[in-house]
Amino acid sequence: MKVFLMFPDRDFDAAAPSPPLADDLVNDLELETLLLALSSGDEFLFAVARTALLETLPDPALVRYRQDIVRDCLRNEETVRALYDLSMEAIRAEKQVWRAFWNSPEIILNRSLQVMEAFLDFLRKLRTQADRCADQFESAGFRRFFRMIRTELGDEYLATVAEHLKALHFRRGVFISARLGVGNKGAEYVLRKAPERGWLGRLTSGEHGRESFSFQIADRDEAGMRALNELRGRGLNPVADALATAADHVLAFFRALRTELAFYIGCLNLVKRLESIGMPWSLPEVLPSSAGPTFRATKLYDVCLALKVEDKVVANDVEADGKRLIVVTGANQGGKSTFLRSVGLAHLMAQCGMVVPCASLRLDARTRVFTHFKREEDPSMRGGKLDEELARMSAIVDHIGTGGLLLCNESFGSTNEREGSEIARQVVTALVDGGVKVVYVTHLFDLADSLTRDSTDDRLFLRAERLPDGRRTFRLVPGMPEPTSHGEDSYRRIFGVEELDRSSSGGL
Amino acid sequence: MIIDPGARDEIRMSEPSVLFPSRGARVVATEDPEIFRDLNLDQVFNTILSGFEEYELRLYMRNLLRGVDEVAYRHEVFRDLERPAIRCAVQDFCLAMRAMRDALRMEERLSYKQQKEWWFLDAVATYCGAVREMARRSTGLPVVSRGLRALLDYLVRYAASERFQALEREVRALREGLDDIRYAIHIKGNRVSVMRYAGEPDYSAEITELFARFHQGTVEDHRVRLGDSPDMDSVEARVVELVARLYPDVFRALEAFRADRRDYLDPVLATFDREIQFYVAYLSWVERLRAHGLPFCYPEVSETCKEIEVREGFDLALALKLEHGTVVRNDFFLRGLERILVVTGPNNGGKTTFARMVGQLHYLAGLGLPVPATYARLILPDRVFTHFEREEDLATLRGKLDDELVRIRDILQHAGERSVIVMNESFSSTALRDALYLGTKILRRVIDIGAIGVYVTFVDQLAALAPQTVSMVGVVDPSDPARRTYRFERRPADGRAYALAVAEKYGLTYERLRKRIAS
User: Fold this and answer.
1) How far apart are CA B320 and CA B94, in angstroms?
2) Low-confidence ranges of chain A (pLDDT < 50)
3) Which of A314, A355, B147, B150 could disulfide-link to B16, CB 3.0 to 4.6 Å?
């Protein structure tokens, strides 16, 4: 019995190790804000959402599989939340069965019996649920899930299980086969299905169906009783294991159910939040990488920013189909970093089957997303900023491979412009030629300008918009890099106009 | 140092032995000689014989062989055992014999009759298997040594004997009888019934099958590790008693076997099993150290020639302790009239280690063992003596110097021209003048005796005392005089070389001191 609501053919591993350099990605995209919204503060939901977001599915078919389930969830929110609660209750019920510090086959058997008896109730409830609402679901994932529940947990099977759970109390005693092992001690103990009742009754009462000898342990012979229990234990050991293993598997099933539903519960939570803020969401169209570089979005916004300010934020329309390099230049605090993050978030969210923060989106699936953002100065660092940047880039290059997406935010801005530009130019052109899509926010004019001079049309240049009166709109518009920095704006705003004359010769 | 005649024992040689070529009585010391401590041979033999205690091999370490043929006899066996096929066959045989003894110990220790019977049968079965396997393998083994050849011939004849084959048949029949037994136990409340097993189906498998559909990848193994002590508790014992009643023929035969076959073990093979360990124990260390790049060789030994030579010799005790290839190796030789190596050099520079090594090499060679060196030509010593500094012995009521001289006198009384005498920092507690005087006197006597000597001293002059003395000097690294090289070279002694180098390093040479004082 497999849940398979995240993948059509395999389990989702919520504890999967993060992909390389995931911590940078999480920090740079401020993913935690999104995760908090997805999880409503629940740790478990948070962890599941984090793993799912960082996984970056490269296969559009897998994305569609989940998107269909998301649609089902949006239509049947109550049922889905009820299923999620059921899985949690089952898990809790197992936890409440006392676990001994000292283990013997007998103790394990008894505990497993209790657990299985509790689970049997939940399995029955799950079956009832499936009978009642299976027809309201349309996604392949949910249809398979409910069909499986109804086949595997048929009435007859549930009854057989109940019967065996009763038999496993061994009210008629245990019947064990053995042979002589080392030192003529009993060995290879195997629990056997006891001969039928009447016959065995005669046997133990002395009317032998076959030659048999008996003895009895005296009630006050404590050592003897201990030894007898040990012998029983040898017979019960494999059956206790089998039952405990079964209990583990059923528990694992409920855990898997909880884990995989958790992802969709997260989506439901997010949709609710976005609707309350009044920002759009949609399910994107994810193309295979063979479709070539694609990115076309309307009303794309930084979901983390929206969630943080709990208000409407600036959204961009982007038309970057066929573009393998997007260079973003323009005024400081003009929305460049926000835009960069929104591209990264769009990929992560789209490529895990989640809803995306925009009115519409079409993109090609990337194998991995990496970020190389300017770091705040770290006082503990003695290695030199450029060294640090180069080391970080080198680590990214170790992992990115063809088909990756790299988001650069003021990379190599820590050294002088000529040196930084030259390094950056070599890095960027090498990556792009190697099949990596790059979105590069930079104030390095030398870099941006030189990138415009190569005659290819797979590059898009965007600029932070500034109105004639100098005000920023925080929107990005197509535009070639301009040699002067708009640091002047900031300066004026902060120092006022009077100061401008004196400091203009210094520039920025 | 000197074996107390009272502490002697005898080994009687009868049947073929892998340790000695000739039969007859042989005298052995029952205590370690004193030189073991001085040469660190006690550590060497403790390490090598560790795990082999049950074979009581130490007595063979206490007694030097009496002639080059005895040495050759052991070298032959060693060389045979260095061939993997032979070594492997011998070790397998010995391991089986050890397992057999373990089984007999179990028989003795356990209390219930059916257990004792099983373990005795197991011991005999292990023994039969060991003999049969060795006989089978022996025909293909390229054995050259006299010692091993004689034993294998004996073993093959023994394995073919009717007496042995009858034993094998009996063992097989008993084992089959026990193996065929299948029984069932029914436990209800405190009542236990035992009967023959009649093919009832496996219930655990049925339960596993029932829940197979829930399988979700690997989960924890819940089987409890139940004790597998060889002992039986009272319930197990009563069950097996009832099993014996269900299968009376099998258990009657088992009982008779244990009563009738107590003397199954052949004494010649038992002795072989013990004596061969002398080789196995030493060889296993030779191989371990070789794997770390430390060489061993078969020394050429002579009862007359004093022109000894060793290349890349090292202290075996040190090598066993460190167990890696960085143990420093040194060369030395004696030519013509030369008899005594006089060792000088910086403190803590390895002089004692060097002296020990010379003593060890001769002693090990005298036991017929491969020695730690790439090449060794040595005298087969009749005795090895040591004179190392002792803690003051209050019981003697003599001064330290007197005590040292008494010990040297004893040595010189017993030493002969085939003896090796290792003297370490003798008279180091006296003034230079006395040390020179006494050293000269003693060395002259050693020269007169004609023994091989090693003399570690701080007195440079002794190194050039006579044509019989050879100066071995600890090497100083001029670029870093504080570093110990532990290497020794054959050249005139010069105690100043090291002192000057160290002084330079600390700016304390004459010229430097003058300038520093002046500035």
Assistant:
1) 24
2) 204-208, 379-383, 485-496, 498-508
3) B150
Tokens of B187: 């436990």
Quick one: pLDDT at residue B16?
Answer: 81
Q: Calculate mean pLDDT across residues B189-213.
A: 91
Burial of A376 (0-12, 13-18, 19+ CB in 10 A): exposed
Q: Which of residues 21-40 of A touch B (CB under 8 A)?
A: none
What mean pLDDT do residues B111-133 have? 96
Min Cα distance A139 → chain B (Å) is 23
What residues are paired with A466 via a beta bridge? A472
Instruction: Select from B195, B207, B226 the Cβ nearest to the Cβ of A210.
Output: B195
**Extents of the domains making up chain B:** 8-177+264-279, 294-494
pLDDT by residue (tens digit) across B310-360? 999 999 999 998 877 789 999 999 999 999 999 988 767 789 999 999 999
Q: Do A1 and B214 touch (CB under 8 A)?
A: yes
The architecture (CATH level 2) of B294-494 comes to 3-Layer(aba) Sandwich (3.40)
A230 touches chain B (CB under 8 A): yes
- In angstroms and rounded to an integer, the radius of gyration of the C-alpha atoms of chain B is 32
Beta-sheet pairing, A437-441 with A325-330 = parallel
User: What is the CA B28 to chain-centroid distance, rounded?
Assistant: 18
Angle, alpha carbons A149-A151-A157 (nearest 5°): 100
User: Could you give all domains of chain A from N- to C-terminal order, each with its CATH number?
Assistant: 60-279 (no CATH), 288-493 (3.40.50.300)
Question: What does the block give as tokens for B451?
Answer: 């023994």
Write out pLDDT tens, residues B31-76: 899 899 999 999 999 999 999 999 999 999 999 998 999 999 999 9
Asked casually if ipTM beats, i.e. exceeds, 0.90, the reply is no
Specify the 3-state DSSP secondary structure of B470. strand
Q: Report the residue count for chain A.
A: 508
Nearest to A355 by CA among A279, A289, A293, A295: A279
Look at residue A414 in the predicted model and tell me its pLDDT.
67
Residue B211 is nearest to which of A103, A225, A249, comparing CB atoms? A249
Rounded Cα distance, B44 and B39, in Å: 9
> What pLDDT, in 10s, does the model give residues A369-398?
999 998 865 544 444 566 677 778 888 888
Chain B interface mutation, best of A180, A189, A199, A216, highest count of B Cβ atoms under 10 Å: A180
Instruction: Please give, rounded to a whole number of angstroms, the shortest distance from the CA of A218 to a CA of chain B.
Output: 8
A 119-178 residues with CB < 8 A to B: 152, 160-161, 164, 168, 172-178
Task: State the sign of the Cα–Cα–Cα–Cα dihedral B242, B248, B254, B257.
Answer: positive
Spatial CA neighbour of A396 closest among A362, A423, A370, A367: A370
